């Protein structure tokens, strides 16, 4: 009556295994292919100074992307980072001449993080939709910046007599300071997200908010802290930007929110929340940086990069979805 | 019963997931007009087999024949077109849409210009709902319905198609007794129309009542098929788990300590009124009643998820205010919630992380979570609850329904609470593990925990409780001691016929 079929060993590499590998590492594979192709097109692509150059120019996007990673994993969006970064840049430049760098920096951090706290309050405690709130804040903060500056550009008057340029232009142990700052921040925030109770709670809130509440997690507080984290990173980015150029327009961060979001998605974070990681975001940032650099090196006009960036993002998201369902194309649902 | 040609045959189905061989050459068939039970422990592969049948998974090997013709179920739509309809174990309804929209999701009747024909839709859904004895209309929002009613919507969805084979994957897990009667009537009607029914359930009683044959899976392998009329529960259990089970009602020796939790005159809007009871250390108080009697709402109030309008909650004799789950947990209260998918688990997280989530802040070494401590807790409860998962890294969403439930139970047991509230603790859990969990609850009571068990299953309440609180429509009708309770008096009390206890 009972017949038990023999357990047969499943045959080596099947489709499911490939699909699973792609789901985990697809972006990385694509990135390596990309590097190979572009290096063949222009060998300078992999020269040390070019690599350092790319990383260095990615640091501002990168620093902001670290903070936005928290927000995205918690299941929300942050489209205000670009405009908030203009604000912190302008503020720190202005205060530099009024208070000196030692006071200007903490003051600017405080002001920027107030904005983050406000957004966090609206999204976390009042439970307003994050897309609406941060899109609105994008515009509101832009207005705030213009009011602050009176519409004028900001410049540091005495560019020689200050040490403020060290963050954006300094070199320590042969490495540019902005890269060091980015690396250090990535390390600290990576540990915070991957290893601490708070980090775990961020994943839980994004993965299933109701279950998180039922587990005794203060959901509103977690979301609030994610936005605070995001604004903290924006303040860093503003400081790097100001210190690099020692002067700035009101609109220096305009449009960066999309590049930041692109980097986070390229890193494989899901916009639904609950997945993503700091190291993945760093990879996403580097991919974006190298793609844009590669396009310039092969001689394309710089504005082509806007289109290509978009195409790459769509490809990345598609690959991600396809790997998860094990098929490239699914005609239904 | 005459031997009829099967309407559906599955031959040598093999399905592997990375690291798991979920189905290992399974044969199965259904004849027209029969109810064929598919049984097996949690994780045996029942749902997976049905998903292969319904085109949601592609088998690695094997074939599906309908009316002796091989078919390939490339996707759920192809399965529907072949007359196979699956009612899922896990509900899959769009919360924000109406009942009618959900029932006809993707196939809404159209008028000219592709506009939805709302009138026809309402009429057709209304008819089906009436057939199912539902007390809600087609325009009701899904999100406002109880789990049982959502289940009825899933069933309504299946009835919109002319089917050759209908699969019910644990349909009764969250239904009340009266709803079950309705469901069994529906199944009889389908049977009369010559539809083949596949019926998955962990409940022996109903399986023996309504099925013609029983097939058993174990660890993904086919173990055999029995004629229901010629077999016994013991034989089926033995086939399922390889041993027979001691299902005798263990005498509940309680060593009742002092009062841990007392609730006085608790009321909350029109959900429940004037609720008073005590739970002592070392005892289990069962809350029995129909779905909607207000039991879950009381539990949620004690856990800080709802505010009460009147009354007091006292722990160890001191009045406490509990305004959030955080405060409840700090006061030593744990709640195993009613719905594992929505309230209990973060499906995308792994087993270990889910289990340790409420206490993650305490499992630290310096600023960091101690992974080792976490794994220890997971392994401990994985063993005690016999959770079947490839490893602690497995994503909870990939576990079988019953094993997911065990993770939720482990999550709250591992908090070592003073007061443990469990809401439908064995929903979807196989017979072996069910008695395991009952024993565990008794064992915990023996260790001095104060426990509240909310259940819609009478045998469960009778098995584990020292005292039973019978509720009807938001009120406590009567409190029984284990010694005095009988099935009849319990049924009488929860139907609201007897009036409330005179004694307060
Ligand atoms: N998508 C998936 N990915 C990986 N493993 C899976 C997946 N789906 C099912 N499994 C595994 O296949 C096995 C069989 O699961 P299945 O859901 O079929 O069990 P079941 O018999 O329905 O159990 P239950 O009674 O608990 O519902 C389990 O070990 C489960 O972990
Ligand atoms: Mg199942």
UniProtKB/TrEMBL annotation, chain A:
InterPro entries: ABC_transp_permease
Annotated signal peptide: none
GO CC terms in record: plasma membrane
Subcellular location: Cell membrane
Record keywords: Cell inner membrane, Cell membrane, Membrane, Transmembrane, Transmembrane helix, Transport
CDD domains: TM_PBP1_transp_AraH_like
Transmembrane regions listed in the UniProt entry: 21-41, 53-72, 102-124, 131-151, 171-194, 222-240, 260-288, 295-319
Entry annotated with the keyword Transmembrane helix: yes
Superkingdom as given in the UniProt entry: Bacteria
One Gene Ontology term of the molecular function aspect: transmembrane transporter activity
Membrane-topology annotation of the record: Multi-pass membrane protein
Protein name: Ribose transport system permease protein RbsC
TrEMBL record, chain B:
Cellular component terms per the entry's GO annotation: plasma membrane
Subcellular location: Cell membrane
Repeat is among the record's keywords: yes
Gene3D superfamilies per the UniProt record, alphabetical: P-loop containing nucleotide triphosphate hydrolases (3.40.50.300)
Keyword Nucleotide-binding recorded: yes
Residues of the ABC transporter domain: 8-244, 253-498
SUPFAM superfamilies according to UniProt: P-loop containing nucleoside triphosphate hydrolases
UniProt keyword annotations, A-Z: ATP-binding, Cell membrane, Hydrolase, Membrane, Nucleotide-binding, Repeat, Sugar transport, Translocase, Transport
Enzyme Commission number, as recorded: 3.6.3.17
A molecular function (GO) term: ATP hydrolysis activity
CDD domains: ABC_Carb_Monos_I, ABC_Carb_Monos_II
Topology in membrane: Peripheral membrane protein
Principal subcellular localisation of the protein: membrane
Name of the protein in its database record: Ribose import ATP-binding protein RbsA
Organism (species): Roseisalinus antarcticus
């Amino acid at each position: 009556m009972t017949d038990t079929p023999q357990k047969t060993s499943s045959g080596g590499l099947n489709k499911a295994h490939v699909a699973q590998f792609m789901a985990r590492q697809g972006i990385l594979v694509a990135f390596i292919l990309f590097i190979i192709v572009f290096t063949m097109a222009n060998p300078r692509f992999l020269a040390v100074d070019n690599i350092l150059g790319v990383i260095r120019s990615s640091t501002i996007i990168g620093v902001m992307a670290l903070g936005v990673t928290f927000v995205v994993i918690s299941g929300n969006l942050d489209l205000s980072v670009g405009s908030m970064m203009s604000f912190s840049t302008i503020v720190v430049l202005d205060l530099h001449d009024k208070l000196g760098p030692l006071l200007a920096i903490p003051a600017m951090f405080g002001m920027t993080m107030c904005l983050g706290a406000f957004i966090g309050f609206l999204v976390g405690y009042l439970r307003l939709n994050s897309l609406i709130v941060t899109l609105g804040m994008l515009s509101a903060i832009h207005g705030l910046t213009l009011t602050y500056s009176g519409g004028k550009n900001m410049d540091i008057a005495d560019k020689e007599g200050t040490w403020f340029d060290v963050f954006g232009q300094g070199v320590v142990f042969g490495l540019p300071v902005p890269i060091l700052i980015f690396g250090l921040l990535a390390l600290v925030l990576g540990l915070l997200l991957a290893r601490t109770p708070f980090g775990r709670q961020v994943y839980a809130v994004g993965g299933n908010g109701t279950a998180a509440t039922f587990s005794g997690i203060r959901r509103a507080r977690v979301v609030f802290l994610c936005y605070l984290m995001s604004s903290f990173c924006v303040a860093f980015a503003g400081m790097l930007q100001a210190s690099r150029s020692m002067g700035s327009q009101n609109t220096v961060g305009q449009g960066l929110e999309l590049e930041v979001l692109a980097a986070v998605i390229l890193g494989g974070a899901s916009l639904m929340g609950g997945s993503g990681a700091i190291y993945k975001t760093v990879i996403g940032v580097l991919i974006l940086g190298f793609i844009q650099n590669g396009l310039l090196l092969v001689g394309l006009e710089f504005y082509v990069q806007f289109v290509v960036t978009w195409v790459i993002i769509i490809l990345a998201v598609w690959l991600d979805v396809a790997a998860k369902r094990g098929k490239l194309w699914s005609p239904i649902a | 019963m005459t031997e009829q040609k099967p309407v559906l045959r599955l031959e040598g189905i093999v399905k592997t997931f990375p690291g798991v061989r979920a189905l290992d050459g399974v044969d199965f068939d259904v004849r027209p007009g029969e109810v064929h039970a598919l049984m097996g422990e949690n994780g045996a592969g029942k749902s997976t087999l049905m998903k292969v049948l319904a085109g949601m998974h592609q088998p690695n090997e094997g074939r599906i024949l309908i009316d002796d013709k091989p078919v390939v179920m490339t996707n759920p739509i192809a399965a529907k077109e072949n007359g196979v309809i699956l009612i899922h174990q896990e509900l899959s309804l769009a919360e924000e849409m109406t009942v009618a929209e959900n029932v006809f999701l993707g196939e809404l009747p159209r008028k000219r210009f592709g506009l939805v024909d709302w009138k026809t839709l309402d009429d057709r859904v209304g008819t089906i709902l009436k057939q199912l004895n539902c007390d809600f209309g087609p325009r009701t929002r899904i999100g406002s319905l109880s789990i049982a009613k959502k289940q009825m919507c899933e069933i309504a969805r299946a009835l919109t198609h002319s089917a050759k084979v209908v699969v019910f994957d644990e349909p009764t897990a969250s239904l009340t007794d009266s709803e079950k009667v309705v469901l069994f009537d529906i199944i009889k009607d389908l049977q009369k129309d010559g539809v083949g029914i596949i019926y998955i359930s962990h409940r022996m009683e109903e399986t023996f009542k309504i099925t013609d044959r029983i097939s058993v899976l174990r660890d993904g392998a086919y173990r055999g098929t029995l004629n229901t009329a010629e077999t016994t529960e013991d034989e089926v259990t033995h086939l399922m788990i390889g041993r027979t089970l001691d299902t005798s009602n263990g005498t509940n020796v309680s060593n009742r300590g002092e009062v841990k939790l007392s609730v006085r005159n608790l009321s909350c809007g029109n959900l429940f009124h004037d609720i008073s009871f005590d739970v002592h250390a070392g005892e289990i108080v069962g809350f029995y009643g129909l779905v909607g009697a207000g039991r879950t709402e009381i539990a949620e109030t004690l856990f800080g998820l709802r505010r009460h309008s009147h009354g007091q909650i006292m722990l160890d004799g001191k009045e406490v205010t509990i305004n959030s789950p955080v405060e409840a947990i700090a006061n030593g209260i744990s709640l195993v919630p009613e719905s594992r998918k929505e309230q209990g688990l973060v499906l995308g997280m792994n087993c270990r992380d889910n289990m340790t989530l409420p206490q993650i802040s305490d499992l630290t070494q310096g600023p960091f979570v101690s992974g080792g401590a976490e794994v220890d807790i997971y392994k401990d409860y994985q063993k005690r609850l016999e959770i079947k998962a490839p490893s602690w890294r497995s994503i909870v969403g990939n576990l079988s329904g019953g094993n997911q439930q065990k993770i939720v139970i482990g999550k709250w047991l591992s908090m070592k609470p003073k007061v443990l509230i469990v809401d439908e603790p064995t929903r979807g859990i196989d017979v072996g593990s069910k008695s395991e969990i009952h024993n565990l609850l008794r064992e915990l009571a023996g260790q001095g925990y104060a426990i509240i068990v909310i259940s819609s299953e009478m045998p469960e309440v009778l098995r584990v409780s020292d005292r039973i609180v019978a509720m009807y429509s938001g009120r406590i009708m009567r409190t029984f001691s284990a010694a005095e309770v009988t099935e009849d008096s319990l049924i009488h009390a929860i139907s609201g016929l007897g009036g409330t206890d005179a004694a307060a």
